[in-house]
Amino acid sequence: MKASQIIAKAVKERRKSLLETEAKAICTEYGIPVTRFKLAKTEDEAVRFAEAMGYPVVLKIVSPDIIHKSDVGGVLVDLKNSKDVRSGYNHIIKNVRKHNEKAGIVGILVQEMAPPSTEVIVGMTKDPQFGPALMFGLGGIFVEVLKDVTFRIAPITEEEACEMISEVKAYPLLKGYRGMPPADIDAIVQILLSTSKLVMEHDEIKELDLNPIIVYRKGAKTVDARIILE
Ligand code: ADP
Ligand code: MG
Question: Ligand 2 centre and the CA of 209: distance in Å?
Fold first, then answer.
């Protein structure tokens, strides 16, 4: 489905937040790299998808009623075999049920596990005066504790995307630090530009959060994408 169809469907179903599968399909349409995924509806299906994808895998709850998945025990990473996937599948459903008996469960997402590397965050919030503001920062404590982030009003140029990246205080870490490889800055620039295009073309998007994006020496992978509608 195209981005506009995905958004129209959510609006029709009176959903304000898109499922991870929907948000990532939109990302893919705009050239934003995401982890490979398949939506499993049964335990057997989850195992089949994991075997085809190759271990390790990540399992995640897909529910219109759950926005912060790990808060409810809805994410399991680094599952290494079919036994892990089977027990993980049931464990996630149990955790989610414990948290909210009535939560709708669309399925469990089986996802390739992106190897650890430097994590960055790209976001968008709407400024009442200036419209969509794009945000960039490094993952973890840099955004959450130190508020080391930078903003630009969309649409942004390539030059502005480069500025956003180089002006955060943590920028030197992107050049490689203590065993972390230097990060592919150009891949981040492209993601910022694609996100800018995406939010400019879809005014119905109120907030967007690519958190985290794992960046490698070459390329990057968005492992979680959240889109909230007006
Ligand atoms: P939420 O933000 O809704 O709690 P996420 O999808 O961000 O859920 O998952 C929580 C954490 O699990 C992420 O921040 C990341 O560290 C890790 N994670 C999730 N998916 C993957 C993946 N495909 N590969 C590697 N790590 C992942
Ligand atoms: Mg997340």
Answer: 8
Distance between Cα 120 and ligand 1 center (Å)? 13
**pLDDT 10s digits, 146-187:** 899 999 999 999 999 999 999 999 999 998 877 778 999 999
Give the CA distances from residue 162 to residues 106, 119, 171, 193, in Å, rounded to whole numbers and listed in that order: 39, 17, 11, 10
Instruction: Decide whether any atom of ligand 1 lies within 6 Å of the 223 Cβ.
Output: yes
Q: Whose CA is nearest to atom 2 of ligand 1?
A: 68
User: Can you tell me which residue has the tokens 């089949």?
Assistant: 48
Percentage of the residues of the chain whose pLDDT score is greater than 90: 91
Q: Are 86 and 59 in contact (CB under 8 A)?
A: no
> Taking each helix axis from N to C terminus, what angle separates 185-201 and 20-29, rounded to the nearest 10 degrees?
100
Angle at CA 120, nearest 5°, toward 119 and 126?
150
Q: How far is CA 90 from its chain centroid?
A: 23
Q: Which ligand is nearest to the CA of 211?
A: 2
Query: What pTM was computed for the model?
Result: 0.96
CA of 206 to the centre of ligand 1 (A): 22
Token pair for 83: 């036994």
The 10s digit of each residue's pLDDT in 96-125 is: 999 999 999 999 999 999 999 999 999 999
Residue 181: the pLDDT is 83
